Amino acid sequence: MDNTEKVKKQKSKVVIDASVLEIENLKTQLARALADYDNLRKRTEREKDEGKYLSKLLVVSRFLPVFDMFEDAQKHTNDMGLGIALKVLQDTLKDEGIEEIKVKEGESFNHETHEAIDTIVTNEKEDGTIAEIALKGYRFSNGPVLRHAKVKVYKAE
Amino acid sequence: MSKIIGIDLGTTNSVVSVMEGGSPKVIPAADTGRNITPSVVEPVKNLVGDVAKRQMVLNPKNTIYSSKRLMGRRFDDSEVSRTTKMVPYKIVKGKGGAAAIEVENKEYTPQEIGARVLMKLKKDAESYLGETVTQAVITVPAYFDDAQRQATKQAGEIAGLKVERIINEPTAAALAYGLEKKKAEKIAVYDLGGGTFDISILELGDGVFEVKATNGDTHLGGDDFDGKIVDWIAEEFRKENSVDLKQDVQALQRIRDAAEKAKIELSASTETEINQPYIMQKDGQPVHLTMKLTRAKYEGLVADLLTRTMKPVAEALKDAKLTPADIDEVIMVGGMTRMPKVVEEVKKFFGKEPNRGVNPDEVVAIGAAIQGGVLGGEVKDILLLDVTPLTLAIETMGGVATPMITRNTTVPASKTEVFSTAADNQTQVEIHVTQGERPLSNDNKDLGRFALDGIPPSPRGVPQVEVTFDIDASGILKVTAKDKATNKTQHITISGAVGLSDEEIKRMQEEAEKHKDEDEKKKDLISAKNAADALVVTAERALKDAGDKVEVDVKTQVEDKVKAVKEVMNSENKEDIETKSKELSETLQTIGQKLYEAASKTDEPKEESKEENSSEPLKDEKKDVEEGEVVS
């Protein structure tokens, strides 16, 4: 009799232990889910702002090559009308907070804003300085870079 | 309870992912916002990823890429000698005969270089998660031997990560597709990445993936495909202009970019234009590059590359002692598998549609994150959040299925909308609940129906019946209808709104896709009929309300137009219905002033024809009710 009681008790203890474990498990999972949700909420806030940048970045980045083509055309035709149009386009970009990355010949290569596409080997210029701008770069004023300026760089022999 | 991140440390690019709320999320690089980071390292200035890549031509001897090819290999390994010939940086014999990299007289092990990439990914993950990350699951190719796996693990440790597990890339891909839950036993993973091609045959037994065979080509990838296009462009251009574009670095750079863009576009369309005006000068005159590349032409250009991938596939199967028919599932990994021809070839070989729903650039990292989630106890026994596989809708006027809870909504979810009646003095509405993607209720699955009666008799559009769809976590749908005037409610409980079999869901989705055009037409016709019906009601009511306040000829004019609309209303000609409706509407408008003035003195809620247009009210064909026309 005593023994069966014991077994019974043990059995119910096992059942209780299992339930306690189950509750613990569920608690942990709930905590995780809540934490994930809270973090998600915070990040969504943050990303909302970034999203604005990002959507602009995606659209404008696709138009930059077209802009380049017009600028190339202007170099050859030197048309006054096209010149005005390009100026307006520049201003519009500026209004949207996008500006050209100003690169001067002779300044040092900066991996944050420049992308080196070629080197020009010479001993007459300072090593690691810009020789030529191959393609203009653009950035958000004090924000991320839309397109790095593609440059050729002097390299000592 | 810090998270275990999953890392795909690739030869060309690396990706990091993490489990979040029970599902994997790829973490974008903090500096670029892109999901992939080039596996490029400049160890002296400690530049990693895109920034290192941008200065590569300046410091070719200092910029390490493809270091995975050296990981855990001896200096005299044939792959190392092959890599030595390929890269501009210096590969030396390091400690114990292992391959090492020498930069500015300092020796770096491939582990240290790999660690730099891992460190960056770790940092990106930390800034994304807002917490410290100390544990990771890292993937390696299935053919990596013990030394290579050990070296990868060391790289993790150098980066300050406890490597909880090293898993095979194909296994990770299989995990990402949840194949361990399916009964798939034999799996082929076709991985065509930026610079390498791997085929792996896996076998699943007791929840463990075993690699049965691997094969591949360590020097075949997306870059080769780009190269073929670049060559073609340069050759075509040379034929036309007798100038070699490849001699001009700047021009070459432009056609490389254009080639990659063309390659991507040809995955979605069958033809693309390559336009690079002012590509160079010839005799002081600008020369423009403009050409068309068709998908067929491109496929011809890369045909030999594709053939090169299929041979190892056959070899691997042979090694695994299997035939293509034995394979239960095929998985596509790597950006190049977006190319339709690749999919076609693989499909042809195995005779089955490959799995490719998960982004092929990210699938390995996603699988690693899932493994991390399992190890961290996040995935095990998780309260799985289910989604509604198909749209739950209510039938409205003309048999239109008006969606209440759209497909892929995570449950539990609830949605309430107010509907009205379609006929005057209608005292009962019938709520008909359906499931499916087709616009008409009849074509969808019937889940159940019930009636709400006792609505006080009023003109059509006046009663407000609030319908609520509430679906709980276990997929039980409760639909409640409440008359807002009397607060009388009626409801129905439907179980199994979520738990459809995969086949059933697929079939219904396919059907919806197949019938899309005709369904749209049918729905448009019904919308036109509904609009016409509403207009007729408005006109008749206005006439009645105006009584003798309008002149007889005006009245006749309206009545004629109403008659005209009624005549065509039951036809199947949408144009006719719309034309006649428009005429009636115009007549009403031109003569309407008086009519409306008279009418507005009597009653009239703000219900107008446009309300019915939006297919809000529900009409049912069932005829057992007093009014015949029932709406909610």
Beginning-to-end CA distance, first to last residue of chain A: 99 Å
Oligomer: heterodimer
Strand content of chain B: 15-25%
Secondary-structure-derived class of chain A: alpha+beta
Average pLDDT, all residues of chain A: 87
Radius of gyration of chain B: 33 Å
The global form of chain B is elongated
Secondary structure tally, helices of chain B:
16
User: Terminal Cα separation of chain B, in Å?
Assistant: 51 Å
Largest sheet of chain A: 3 strands, antiparallel
Low-confidence stretches of chain A: none
Number of strands of chain A: 6
Tell me about this structure.
The complex is a heterodimer of chains A (157) and B (632). Chain A has helices at residues 2-77, 80-95; strands at 98-101, 114-121, 130-135, 137-140, 145-147, 149-155. Chain A is of the alpha+beta class. Chain A is 59% helix and 20% strand. The N and C termini of chain A lie far apart (99 Å). In chain A, β4 and β5 (145-147) form a beta hairpin. The mean pLDDT of chain A is 87. Chain A contains two helices and six strands; from the N terminus they run ααββββββ. Chain B has 632 residues and is α+β, with helices and mostly antiparallel strands. Chain B is elongated and about 105 Å long. In chain B, 38% of the residues lie in helices and 25% in strands. In chain B, α5 (169-176) crosses α11, α13 (516-546) runs antiparallel to α14 and α13 (516-546) packs parallel to α15 (574-602). In chain B, the strands form seven sheets. In chain B, strands 1, 2, 3, 4, 10 and 11 form a six-stranded mixed sheet that branches. Chain B starts with a strand and ends in a 19-residue tail after the last helix. At the A-B interface, α1, β2 and β6 of A face α1, α7 and β15 of B.
